[in-house]
Amino acid sequence: SDPDLVARATAAKAALGDKVFVLGHHYQRDEVIQFADVTGDSFKLAREAAARPDAEYIVFCGVHFMAESADILTSDTQRVVLPDLAAGCSMADMAALPQVENAWDVLVDLGVADRTVPVTYMNSSADIKGFVGRHGGVVCTSSNAKRALEWAYQQGEKVLFLPDQHLGRNTAVLEMGFSLDDCVLYDPHKPGGGLTPEQLRDARMILWRGHCSVHGRFTLDSVNDVRERVPGVNVLVHPECRHEVVNAADLVGSTEYIIKTIEAAPAGSAWAVGTELNLVRRLALAHPDKQIMFLDRAVCYCSTMNRIDLPHLVWALEELVAGRVANQITVDPDTAHHARVALDQMLALPG
Ligand code: CIZ
Ligand code: SF4
C-alpha cells in the first residue's frame, strides 16, 4: 500500500492512542487489516468493542449492519465510525422493515403469527433485529444457527428466517433433519410472498428470499471442477453458499471455523475455500506449506467490504485526531433496545 498513507494511518493511530480501537472484519483488504487492533467476524468484533469501554472511538472496518451491532452492544459514551457510509451489505438490504412487517401481517391474517418465531441472521439491519426482539425471536450467527433454531422451535412451531435463505435452509436441512419440503421461500416482492395460504400454514420453516451476492456465486460446477483439477482436495465452504454447494462440500462453517480448520490442517493438504476472496488470499499467504485456493475460477470480493480502503481509513482516523467524528453510526434508542433483547437472547442460548 501507498507508504504515505501507511505513515499517516500510523501517525493518526498513535495520536489517538487508547481512545481509538480499530476493528477489521475478515473480508477486509490487507491494506486495512494491517491497522486492525483485532480481526474477526461481525459478532466477535461487536463483542470486542463492548469489552473495551475505554475506547471512545470504535472504527469499524466492515459493513453498515456490523457498525450498527457494535453501536447497540457498546456503551452510550462510545462512538462507532464506519469509514465509508456506502459500505452496505446486499444481503442485509434484501430485508427492509416494511417488507418484514408486511410478511408478519400475512401470518397474522392466517392466524399463525402467534406460533411463529422470527429468527434473524446477524447480517441484517438494526431495524430487523429490533423487529425480531419485539416479536420474541432471536439473532443468530453462522456458528450458532442450529442452536438458535432449536431454541426457536421450543418457543413455537414455525420459524420466519431472515434474511439469508441459504443459511436457514442449510441449517434446517443439513443439521436438523428437515426436508426441503418443510421449507418455503417467501418472496417479499410478491403478494403473500408468492406462496399459497396452505403453503404458509404447513411450512415449518419460512425462508426469506435473501442471499449473499458473494457466497451465492459459488455453484456445484465450481465444486466439481476443483475436484477434477485437484485430486484429494478438501472443499470448505461458508453456510451462506447455496444448498447444493454446501451439500457437495466436505466441510461447512463460519469464517472463524474456516480459519481454525485451515490452521489445523496438515502440511501438504489441499483446500478449496468457498468464502470471500480477501480472507482466502490471506489464508493462502499465511500457510505456504498448504495448498489453499479459491473455490471458483472467477474472482469474487465483497464489493461493499472493499469500499473500506486505506484512503477512507486514513480520512476517518485523521478526522478523529482533528476532534471531529465523521460517519458515526447510531441506532435510535428504541430500536437498539429491542435489537439488544434479540441479541441477548442469542447470548443466552444453551450450549
Ligand atoms: O458473510 C459475511 O458477511 C459474514 C461472514 C459476516 C459475519 O458475520 O462476520
Ligand atoms: Fe453482505 Fe455477503 Fe458482503 Fe457479507 S460477503 S457483507 S453477507 S454481501
UniProtKB/TrEMBL annotation:
[4Fe-4S] cluster binds at residues 89, 212, 302. It is found in: Cytoplasm. Transmembrane segments: none annotated. Gene3D superfamilies: NadA-like. It catalyses: iminosuccinate + dihydroxyacetone phosphate = quinolinate + phosphate + 2 H2O + H(+). One of its GO terms (cellular component) is cytosol. GO terms for molecular function: 4 iron, 4 sulfur cluster binding; metal ion binding; quinolinate synthetase A activity. Pathway: Cofactor biosynthesis; NAD(+) biosynthesis; quinolinate from iminoaspartate: step 1/1. Its EC number is 2.5.1.72. Its cofactor is [4Fe-4S] cluster. Keywords: 4Fe-4S, Cytoplasm, Iron, Iron-sulfur, Metal-binding, Pyridine nucleotide biosynthesis, Transferase. The keyword Iron applies. Iminosuccinate binds at residues 25, 42, 121-123, 142, 238-240, 255. Binds 1 [4Fe-4S] cluster per subunit. It comes from the Bacteria. One of its GO terms (biological process) is 'de novo' NAD+ biosynthetic process from L-aspartate. Belongs to the quinolinate synthase family. Type 3 subfamily. Catalyzes the condensation of iminoaspartate with dihydroxyacetone phosphate to form quinolinate. This is Quinolinate synthase.
